[in-house]
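RECORD TYPE: inverse folding
INPUT: structure tokens
STRUCTURE:
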């Protein structure tokens, strides 16, 4: 157990860099490592060599986890065997001297010893004690569910670790942006970002696809909560593994499910539809371009690239404003997230986009190394377009037309085969822990001995708590009251013959 605790603490410390430093393969921020490396050119290479950008898949983190799993297995299984035996064990024999126990009472009675023992056994059984009668002693114990809770807790902890490991090895997570009218198939090339587990096979992904027919969003129109999102809904047409199609809808907290793979709606934005023509009048790009939101009012930035334009390649960078407003200090921005007065503010570039050098580029950023911004009289050429407007570049270099606005939705596709196991283990772990902390386990002994002073016998009753919370208040008092009551008013005892035949004979009392 000591080794397991040390390894658990070491695992927690090892996870800290994974929470503080950017990680590769994180779909929510794929460029974080690149940006960190650019900002820290000296430190980043050393961190990369040590695996701090891939903490949770690094060999040293995996080694700690495997050692913890091995240690927990070696610790928990023998302990579970001991707890299992404890839940089935009989109450222990009474101490030789009951008067030494802190909660102890004794008195003289003229009732037959057999009847007192029988009454004690029946009363303790009625109170759900596990009772054994041994000669002149009744031994009882209650609270075995506490040991069962300990057993469930330890087994659940081990199952939880295996569930998490299964999810990390066989699960995956990916993100994809789909524009209205666009489609997605659950194959690896279709993902914008894909983070698989080490044992994930590409040909084992659940076969399904869907088309985003329409995306709708509702926002608070007025008041102090103006602009707050109220509802998001993606209406899709799904093609399942059996080839059948059906209309479905994905909303927040209502994902699409296929054989353990879930599709969550995690974000949305606008994709202005544009048509770009080059200097020769040819259409070199036509369709929606995704612009990423910058604030709560959906002020969005993005770029347009036309590598096939002639005689020079074209690129545009700018903002999309769903409800445009122009401030002398803040510049162009959106005043409301819904498209009440959409504008597309663009500035143009010409030159080499750098798409032919083999270095991958983000579709949301421009590599301006070999680009020149278009100027008019020394001022950057820019224009705010309404739907239907055209921005014509000087010197006949080309044009761009703002055709309309489409919506896009950001989907997270995830499969975690160990999540059900981990969830069940976590629930059982809490139940077991609660039981082990709240159930009071205690022992009771009732002993009958001859009275050396005369007729009758001496009854001794003692309790012993096995938890810090002690024996429930009043339990000892009520038990003594029942046993001291006259025989005709006491709880109906078991037949004397049964007591005598099941257990060793009770010593005769003095008459």
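DESIGNED SEQUENCE:
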């Amino acid at each position: 157990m000591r080794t397991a605790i040390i390894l658990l603490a070491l695992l927690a410390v090892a996870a800290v860099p994974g929470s503080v430093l950017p990680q590769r393969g994180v779909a929510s921020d794929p460029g974080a490592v690149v940006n960190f490396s650019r900002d820290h050119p000296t430190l980043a290479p050393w961190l990369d060599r040590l695996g701090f950008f891939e903490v949770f898949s690094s060999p040293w983190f995996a080694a700690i986890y495997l050692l913890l799993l091995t240690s927990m297995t070696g610790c928990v299984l023998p302990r579970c065997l001991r707890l299992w035996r404890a839940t089935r064990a009989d109450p222990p024999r009474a101490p030789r001297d009951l008067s030494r126990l802190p909660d102890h009472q004794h008195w003289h009675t003229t009732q037959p010893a057999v009847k007192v023992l029988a009454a004690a056994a029946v009363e303790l059984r009625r109170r759900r004690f596990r009772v054994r009668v041994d000669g002149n002693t009744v031994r009882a114990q209650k609270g075995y569910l506490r040991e069962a809770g300990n057993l469930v807790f330890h087994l659940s902890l081990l199952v939880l670790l295996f569930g998490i490991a299964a999810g990390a090895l066989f699960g995956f997570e990916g993100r994809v942006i789909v524009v209205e009218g666009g489609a997605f198939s659950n194959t690896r090339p279709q993902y914008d970002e894909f983070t698989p587990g080490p044992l994930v096979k590409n040909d084992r992904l659940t076969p399904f696809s869907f088309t985003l027919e329409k995306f709708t969003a509702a926002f608070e129109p007025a008041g102090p909560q103006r602009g707050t999102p109220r509802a998001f809904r993606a209406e899709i047409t799904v093609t399942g593994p059996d080839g059948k199609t059906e209309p479905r809808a994905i909303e927040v907290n209502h994902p699409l499910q296929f054989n353990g793979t879930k599709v969550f709606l995690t974000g949305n934005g606008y994709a202005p539809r544009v048509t770009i023509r080059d200097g020769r009048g040819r259409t070199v790009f036509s369709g929606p371009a995704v612009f990423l939101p910058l604030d709560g009012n959906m002020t969005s930035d993005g770029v347009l690239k036309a590598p096939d334009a002639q005689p020079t390649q074209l690129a545009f960078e700018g903002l999309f404003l769903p409800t445009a407003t122009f401030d002398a200090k803040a510049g162009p921005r959106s005043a409301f997230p819904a498209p009440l007065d959409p504008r597309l503010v663009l500035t143009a570039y010409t030159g080499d986009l750098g798409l032919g050098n083999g270095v991958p580029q983000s579709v949301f950023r421009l590599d301006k190394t070999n680009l020149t911004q278009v100027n008019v009289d020394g001022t950057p050429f820019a224009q705010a377009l309404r739907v239907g407007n055209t921005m014509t570049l000087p010197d006949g270099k080309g044009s761009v037309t703002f055709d309309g606005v489409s919506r896009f939705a950001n989907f997270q596709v995830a499969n975690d085969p160990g999540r059900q196991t981990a969830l069940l283990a976590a629930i059982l772990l809490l139940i077991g822990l609660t039981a082990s902390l709240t159930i009071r386990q205690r022992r009771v002994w009732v002993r009958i001995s001859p009275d050396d002073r005369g007729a009758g016998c001496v009854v001794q009753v003692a309790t012993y708590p096995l938890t810090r919370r002690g024996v429930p208040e009043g339990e000892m008092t009520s038990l003594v009251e029942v046993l001291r009551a006259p025989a005709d008013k006491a709880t109906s005892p078991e037949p004397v013959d049964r007591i005598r035949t099941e257990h060793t004979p009770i010593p005769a009392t003095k008459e």
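NOTES: Residues 487-511 have pLDDT under 50 and may be disordered.
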